[in-house]
TrEMBL record:
Ranges of residues in domain Acyl-CoA oxidase/dehydrogenase middle: 160-254
Highest taxon of the lineage: Bacteria
Organism encoding this protein: Frankia nepalensis
GO MF assignments: flavin adenine dinucleotide binding; oxidoreductase activity, acting on the CH-CH group of donors
Cellular component, GO, one term: plasma membrane
Gene3D superfamilies, A to Z: Acyl-CoA dehydrogenase/oxidase, N-terminal domain (1.10.540.10), Butyryl-CoA Dehydrogenase, subunit A, domain 2 (2.40.110.10), Butyryl-CoA Dehydrogenase, subunit A, domain 3 (1.20.140.10)
Record's protein name: Acyl-CoA dehydrogenase family protein
Pfam families (UniProt xref): Acyl-CoA_dh_1, Acyl-CoA_dh_M, Acyl-CoA_dh_N
Length: 937
């Protein structure tokens, strides 16, 4: 570099003398942790990378090279050495085509390499391959590729990207740097770039400058590769709040050869849009988030006075919390940690979606922005929680590779992460600009209004009951579509952002110009499951305007639609359990989207799951269920409204002749008034002894709807918020609605869907009505297994329904906002409106991803013996969908204004149903308690 201010000259040849190798056996510490789940081959490669990094980054190797002024935490010598070793292994370009010298492996291999690099805090994030390989491959000529790519792949050169300029930030249309042509074919580069990561150690700098200063703002821009050793290049360090240096690069009439031009002259804006789009990857941030979560979880689970458990991500010897209890024993801490775990899963789904899109050749800018927003904002919340839960000790500063701070959890990394993660939401394009990009690319909201004034939600696009919501592939990588564009620095450029300020509309207020573009297709529920299109075809004649009349009938739903669903959509009894799980999610989402009331969760999904687990004992009932000759309803809530297995309020006394006498109450049975047969759990009381009256860990099960009363216990089985010490033996009974002594009480709810309580007073049943009897089996008994499967599949159905309801509100909101003109301009021209709409879209996507992941976990598990992993996945789906749907309801009514409050708008039908589904089978707090129990293991 021509001149560096305030930085010692490092010997780059010296790097080769540091040995960094590994013997590819995953060790303890950071060596064992959850991955993104991208297939067996990618996971095998991830294990190999993990083993190497675990060995290469031991304290003995890194301590001599700790450098808190470098963003990586390590000095340049170590960084270059590690990159060369990664290059020698062929990993830096593992996903590049073999003909270019890369590994030729799928995008999933690149993703897991990035994930592991970030998880281990390895200085392998801002490599030359990561930053510059995409534009070099896409736009470089043969000589540039031949000269640069081999060295980049071997890890022999460092690069930086310098787009942002002082005072311009993300607005690259305001760039002032110039590169004026000279007579010999070269250029003279002058300008000032700021907030450049790694600018002080880079060999080459990828930058942009104006080659035609007279051209409009987004034209006449070209891209260059600048040798930082050229005269006139100066690097100036600027210390950040986290203690590391970013750099300003000053170009003072730097003479560039003709070969420094990358791509086509004056086409730099198009190239820049591509380069920054390719730079956005969620895997680095996901790796950082997973590592911090693992550190926090280890800290919270450690008993007072002990070191963090061996095998955790936290460094050995970290001080444990004081006070005699682990933080995770505090129900409030457990609830917060469970919520963060569910958030992390949602962010992981977004990052994985980017990889799967790339594997399919369908990478979308909207998906990249979604992942960026979710991950960086989660990282900040997680870091805030880490410092909060650790108290004053959480403020003791440390670094990933320096000496562990005495008395600090995780060696002082909590405080380090808190300061470090502030830049994520502004780096690579601010999150506000990414939300703008989402609103434009995914929702079609921009400064120009759309054609049609919307009606009620099901009339916003034809056919009603179907969502015109297909997730767009988004602009191609070369397009200059609206949306943020990163620079690789804390203030990334936005080459594709719309010009500041919308053009004024010439149409009268409240009317839409006839020249406005039509809305794009948008379908966040779309997937490859053929059932989805089949359900949409089935619901093609359904209109939201029919809802009130249908709800007023005795059944409360359309019996013809119900029969058609059973005949045409629901899997046959002979189908494997995975088919039942998949159908549950898809049907629930589509019914929610159409706001079509059918007794899906209690009357079909829960009942069918319970009967399936019973095997031969439930076969006849499964056949009757599918024929529609008998309408079923599973009773999952106790007398206080808590879902199984928090308590079972109905007791069963044996009679000498083999019959049973049932007494008690079960509540909140959906469509109870139209059911012919109830599947009812009952607690056995033998010889006058009620073995259900045992100690209960977690509080009074008769508390407030089984929600927070038992949150501390966490939950050992299913969705319980606590655990019986000695589980009572249960029966699962088939009880006809006409049984003497059975009294039904119905309720008027805000959703107007039918809901009822059952009171049993000395009801006598025959032995053959007992479908399952735990007898002495306890938790392993068939009744408990069937009921656990029922409430788990039912919770999945509710998550799907909430997702569909949220998507329906999103559809109505986008159509309303996209068509409205206010204050002489399109309503969507207001940035606050676009960003609020983008948040609704994020909520729908996270709910959908959580439900899909839960269905996938259930499909791989035996329904009769569910482990904690699928149960936690379903709990996360219910939590995520509930919170997301409630936020969407609030946001939809806000964005739709007074019109949204009118009955004719139809939004309230969705909002009412969301509130009803929120509490079914337990509120979010109950399911977070189940997750907390999973995290304790």
């Amino acid at each position: 570099m021509g001149h560096q201010v305030g930085r010692h000259e490092a010997s780059r040849d010296e790097a080769s003398r540091h040995e960094v190798d590994g013997h590819e056996v995953c060790g303890h510490g950071a060596g064992r942790h959850e991955g993104p789940g991208l297939g067996a081959d990618a996971e095998a490669f991830r294990a190999e990378v993990c083993a190497w990094l675990t060995d290469a980054l031991t304290p003995a190797r890194t301590a001599p090279h700790a450098d808190p002024t470098d963003r990586t935490g390590l000095d340049e010598d170590f960084e270059r050495c590690l990159q060369r070793e990664a290059g020698r292994r062929g990993w830096l370009g593992i996903g590049l085509p073999a003909e270019l010298g890369g590994g030729g492996r799928p995008a999933s291999f690149t993703a897991v390499f990035q994930y592991e690099a970030a998880y281990h805090h390895a200085p392998l994030v801002d490599t030359a391959v990561t930053l510059a390989a995409p534009p070099v491959v896409a736009f470089g000529d043969r000589e540039q590729r031949a000269r640069l790519l081999p060295a980049m792949l071997r890890g022999e050169i460092e690069m930086c990207i310098a787009y942002t300029e002082p005072g311009a930030g993300n607005d690259l249309s305001s760039l002032t740097s110039t590169a004026l042509a000279t007579g010999d074919g070269g250029y003279r580069l002058s300008g000032h770039k700021t907030l450049v990561t790694g600018g002080g150690r880079a060999d080459l700098c990828l930058t942009v400058a104006r080659t035609d200063p007279t051209a409009p703002a987004r034209r006449g821009v070209s891209m260059f590769l600048v040798d930082t050793t050229l005269p006139g290049v100066t690097a100036v360090p600027r210390r950040t709040m986290a203690g590391y240096d970013l750099w300003d690069l000053l170009f003072d009439d730097v003479a560039l050869p003709a070969g420094a031009l990358l791509g086509t002259r004056d086409e730099g804006w198009r190239q820049l849009a591509y380069a920054v789009e390719q730079e956005r990857t969620g895997m680095f941030t996901l790796g950082w988030c997973q590592r911090l979560f693992d550190d926090v979880r280890a800290y919270c689970a450690a008993p007072a006075g002990s070191a963090v458990p061996a095998g955790s991500a936290a460094p050995a010897g970290s001080d444990a919390p004081a006070g005699g209890r682990a933080p995770l024993d505090d129900p409030l801490v457990a609830d917060r940690l469970a919520a963060l775990w569910a958030e992390l899963r949602a962010a992981r789904h977004a990052a994985v979606r980017l990889v799967t899109e790339e594997l399919a050749g369908e990478r979308s800018s909207a998906s990249a922005s979604v992942a960026k927003v979710l991950l960086t904002e989660h990282a900040q919340r997680l870091a805030q929680f880490a410092t909060e839960v650790a108290g004053p000790a959480g403020t003791i500063a440390g670094t990933p590779f320096g000496p562990a701070a005495p008395g600090a959890p995780a060696g002082g990394r909590f405080a380090h992460e808190y300061l470090f993660r502030f830049d994520g939401t502004v780096s690579v394009g601010t999150n506000e600009l990414h939300r703008d990009g989402i609103a434009t690319a995914a929702l079609g909201l921009s400064a120009r209004p759309r054609r049609a004034e919307p009606g009620p939600p099901d009339q916003a696009a034809a056919p009603a009951g179907q969502a015109p919501l297909a997730t767009p592939a988004g602009p191609t990588p070369l397009a200059t579509s609206a949306g943020p564009a990163p620079s690789g620095t804390p203030a990334g450029p936005t080459p594709s952002a719309a010009p500041a300020g919308p053009a004024p509309s010439t149409a009268p207020a409240g009317q839409v110009p006839s020249t406005a573009p039509a809305a794009p297709a948008l379908d966040p529920l779309a997937d490859a499951d053929p059932r989805r299109e089949a359900v949409r075809a089935l619901l093609g004649s359904w209109r939201l305007g029919q809802l009130a009349a249908v709800q007023a009938t005795a059944a409360g739903y359309d019996r013809a639609l119900w029969s058609a669903l059973l005949d045409e959509i629901w899997p046959p009894a002979s189908a494997p359990p995975a088919e039942l799980v998949a159908a549950t999610r898809v049907v629930a989402e589509e019914l929610g989207l159409a706001r079509c009331p059918l007794p899906l969760h209690a009357g079909l999904a829960q009942a069918d799951a319970a009967l399936l687990v019973l095997g031969e004992q439930g076969r006849a009932h499964r056949d009757a269920l599918r024929r529609g000759t008998t309408r079923y309803a599973l009773c999952a809530h106790d007398a206080a409204g808590a879902p199984f297995p928090a308590n079972v309020s109905v007791v069963a006394h044996p009679a000498p002749d083999g019959r049973w006498r049932l007494s008690g109450r079960t509540r909140y049975v959906t469509y109870a008034d139209s059911a012919d047969l109830f599947l009812l759990p009952a607690r056995r009381v033998d010889d006058g002894y009620d073995d259900g009256a045992v100690a209960y860990a977690g509080g009074d099960a008769g508390g407030d709807a089984g929600g927070d009363a038992s949150a501390e216990a966490g939950g050992a089985t299913g969705h319980t918020a606590g655990a019986y010490i000695g589980r009572p033996r249960l029966l699962l009974v088939a009880l006809p609605a006409s049984t003497p002594g059975l009294r039904l009480t119905t309720h008027d709810t805000i959703s107007v869907d039918h809901l009822g309580d059952l009171d049993l007073v000395d009801v006598t049943i025959q032995p053959e009505q007992v479908l399952a009897d735990d007898s002495d089996a306890g938790d392993d008994g068939p009744a408990t297994a069937a009921l656990t499967a029922a409430v788990t599949v039912g919770s999945l159905a509710l998550a799907g329904e909430l997702t569909g309801l949220a998507a329906g509100l999103l559809r109505a909101t986008v159509n309303r906002v996209g068509a409205r003109v206010a204050y002489g301009q399109p309503l969507a021209a207001l940035q606050a409106v676009r960003q609020r709409a983008a948040d609704l879209y994020l909520d729908v996507l996270t709910a959908r991803d959580a439900a899909a992941a839960a269905a996938g976990a259930l499909a791989e598990a035996p329904l009769g013996v569910l482990g904690t992993d699928p149960l936690a996945a379903v709990a996360a789906a219910k939590v995520t969908a509930t919170i997301s749907a409630v936020r969407v309801a609030t946001g939809a009514h806000q964005l739709c204004g007074g019109w949204g409050h009118l009955d004719e708008a139809g939004l309230h039908h969705y909002t009412r149903a969301i509130k009803a589904a929120e509490s079914q089978l337990g509120p979010a707090s109950l399911h977070r308690a189940s997750i907390a129990g999973h995290l304790r293991r």
